[in-house]
Design goal:
The chain is mainly α and 191 residues long. It has three helices and no strands.
Length: 191
């Protein structure tokens, strides 16, 4: 069997394996999201049941205000925790896909490099300058790709840091609002 058909078969096999790996990673992330949502729904139903029981027992307006102010902070905390879990799942899937694509691209680079080497060995006399130009172009393309990949990773890290900072600020604002509502409730009770 010649080397070229075997290379095509190996390339096809690698492509199918990469597709299966990508599907596995995406499905795993989807499965984690479904599991998270089921847990959140169950906890929410339990909490609604408990809060409904408490609401039925409210006797005056001050108790109603106290109960509503006590709901604000836990709800904000839960929303933040849920967002963090979703973000972690998506980031995990994204990291898996990035690893898979880097592996696939590294194999592709190696295959192209091997093909160029084969071409240079079998090239007719006098084509050394063409082979050198192809090798130089390949090296420049690899350098450009590495720089773009590095910039994309830095952008992703910056976005993650900004998201974390925004989440912290939102949580602090929700906590401050809950504390203010509690202060108002205490002041009303004292009056």
């Amino acid at each position: 069997m010649s080397a070229i058909p075997q290379q095509v078969i190996n390339s096809q096999k690698a492509a199918v394996e990469a597709l299966v790996a990508v599907q596995g990673s995406v499905f795993s992330g989807f499965e984690k999201l479904v599991d998270l949502n089921l847990k959140v729904m169950k906890a929410t139903l339990d909490e609604v049941s408990e809060k409904s029981q408490k609401a039925v027992g409210i006797k005056d307006a001050q108790e109603a205000v106290a109960m509503s102010s006590n709901l604000l902070q836990p709800a904000a905390e839960k929303a933040m925790a849920y967002s963090k879990h979703v973000y972690d799942i998506v980031a995990s899937v994204q990291a898996d896909l990035a690893k898979l694509s880097e592996t696939h691209l590294a194999e592709g680079k190696k295959n192209v490099s091997d093909a160029i080497e084969q071409f240079s060995k079998n090239a007719p006399a006098g084509s050394e300058s063409v082979v050198a130009m192809i090798k130089s172009s390949m090296a420049q393309a690899n350098t450009a790709y590495d720089q773009v990949t590095k910039a994309a990773k830095q952008a992703a890290e910056t976005a993650e840091q900004n998201l974390t900072a925004a989440a912290s600020a939102t949580y602090k604002a929700a906590s401050d609002a809950a504390d203010a509502a509690k202060s108002v409730t205490r002041a009303r009770r004292a009056a």
